[in-house]
Write a structure and sequence with these properties.
The protein is of the alpha+beta class. 49% of the residues lie in helices and 20% in strands. The chain has a five-stranded antiparallel sheet with strand order 4-3-7-6-5, with helices on one face. A five-stranded mixed sheet has the order 9-11-12-14-13. Strands 1-2 form a two-stranded antiparallel sheet.
């Protein structure tokens, strides 16, 4: 019961740590403790019924024996009961036995006048002469069990029948009933504690796989994120093990992403930092103000490139780790978002006399994360402007095509070969002879963010038609699943499988 009370207190406060062993033990023992009093009551009922049966039979025989001594003379009952018979009726050493024979109108013919009379309400609806019936009564505070029989002609009125009754107290019955109850209940005081011990032992053995699983996890090295072998795991623990292995896999992916980030950052930052150090050393040796200014300008330019590289490395790390992917995706008007971002790049495009265009498409919705989508579009525009010559063209657009939405950034830049088009999304990959000051991370970030949105990113060669001449160029395209607010109430995305290149 102490365990049950603790369990109730814990359930009232869900923040308290619960014992699975104690919970199961409570739920197994609580029904047993609830059923036990019921079983005692049922045992008492049946024990009383069993104890009544033999003594009721004795009363039946006594009533029958007395009725055989009754004779009807001119319609009046008479009885001749030998003294030995009377002595036999009085011979019970435990209970008191009473009898009487009543004639017409309840007149006492023989027996004990103190035996309570039969009430009209106690008479069965259908009474047959010669049949034995039973009733319960009391006399001077003692409970009585009374057997009675009517004697007479079936066709005669009941008032002309004689009544024979024999009653006795219930001490023998009570003693027999108590013995039966004791014989049933007393062994339970041994069986129930034994059952509790066996249940406790069975639970200990049944929960031992949990203990072994815990020990296997505790014995692991801190850096061991390999999945738990599910071969010896019980069927009930399979979902938990699978969920734990899934969590380990995600942790492994995050750690791998962190290691790649640290390795890539260390590798990529080594070159600009070394260059900055050399430029700073050269600047310290210069006495010519003009040369010193030139060196400082180089340092400033190198700092800008290093800052851009650091920002891209951080963006890639966030995308790979899914820092924002756990946030709920919401409906986003991609065309409106593209318009806002293109406006922020106009000044840079004007500095290089690049014609940066935007083709409006009206509201086009996808399920997405605004922060990540903004990072993606910025990288696509940066890549397009970086590899487009001065006075070139860059056009941004959103195209709705049925169940898909296409984000396209088209440029008249240096172009790309079909072979390089499949490699540019790898980190730090740069096309030979492309020039520019790119880090090779922009399109890698685009791919990571596209995958988080179940989208597909691609870059392919393209040509602009301008006054009859064809200049090389490329087009970056990201294909998203479309979101139709009126037709879809779910934010669940499915991977894009399209034929778009």
């Amino acid at each position: 019961m102490g365990t049950a009370l603790k369990s109730l207190r814990k359930k009232s406060n869900p923040d308290i740590q619960r014992s699975l062993f104690g919970e199961i033990l409570d739920w197994m023992l609580a029904p047993l403790l609830f059923v036990w009093p019921i079983s005692i009551a049922v045992t008492h009922y049946f024990a009383t019924s069993v104890a009544n049966y033999p003594y009721d039979q004795t009363l039946r025989e006594q009533v029958t024996a007395i009725s055989r001594q009754v004779r009807f003379v001119e319609g009046q009952p008479q009885i001749s009961l030998p003294g030995s018979a009377r002595a036999f009726l009085r011979s019970d050493e435990i209970d008191s036995v009473y009898f009487h024979v009543l004639g017409r109108g309840g007149k006492l013919i023989a027996g004990d006048p103190e035996l309570p009379m039969l009430k009209a309400s106690e008479v069965p609806d259908k009474v047959e002469p010669g049949e034995v019936y039973f009733r319960d009564d009391d006399y001077q505070g003692q409970d009585l069990r009374v057997a009675f029989m009517y004697l007479g002609e079936p066709d005669a009125p009941r008032a002309d029948w004689a009544l024979v009754e024999v009653g006795e107290t219930l001490e023998k019955r009570s003693q027999l009933s108590n013995k039966i109850i004791a014989s049933v209940i007393l062994p339970q005081f041994v069986i129930i504690p034994l059952a509790v011990v066996l249940v406790w032992f069975g639970l200990s053995q049944g929960l031992s796989p949990l203990t072994r699983l815990r020990e296997r996890i505790e014995m692991r090295r801190e850096a061991d994120l390999s999945p738990i072998a599910a071969g010896r795991v019980p069927e009930e623990l399979q979902p938990l093990t699978e969920a734990f292995n899934s969590m380990l896999a995600r942790m492994q992916q995050n750690m791998d992403a962190q290691r790649r980030f640290i390795s890539d950052a260390a590798h990529q930052m080594r070159t600009p930092l070394t260059g900055l150090k050399m430029l700073a050393q050269l600047a310290m040796r210069e006495n010519d103000p003009q040369q010193l200014r030139y060196a400082l300008e180089n340092i400033s330019s190198s700092v800008d490139r290093a800052s851009h590289l650091v920002n891209q490395l951080l963006a890639l790390a966030r995308a790979e780790a899914g820092e924002h992917s756990e946030q709920a995706l919401v409906p986003v008007d991609l065309d409106r978002l593209l318009h806002e971002i293109v406006e922020t790049w106009v000044v840079r495009a004007l500095d290089r006399r690049i014609d940066l265009g935007y083709e409006p498409a009206g509201p086009v919705h996808i399920m997405g994360n605004v922060f990540l989508l903004r990072e993606m579009i910025n990288n696509l525009l940066d890549n397009a402007l970086r590899y487009t010559q001065d006075e070139g063209q860059v056009t941004a657009r959103v195209v709705a095509q049925g169940d898909f939405v296409l984000l396209e950034i088209e440029d008249s830049g240096i172009g790309i070969s079909d072979e390089d088009a499949h490699k540019v999304f790898d980190r730090f990959y740069r096309v030979d002879g492309s020039g520019g000051e790119g880090s090779g991370l922009g399109l890698a970030i685009v791919r990571e963010i596209a995958e988080l949105h179940r989208a597909a990113a691609s870059l392919r060669p393209h040509s602009f038609a301008d006054q009859g001449e064809r200049a090389p160029g490329s087009i970056a395209r990201v294909v998203f699943p479309a979101h139709h607010p009126l037709a879809s109430g779910s934010g669940v995305l499915k991977p894009v499988q399209t034929g778009f290149a």
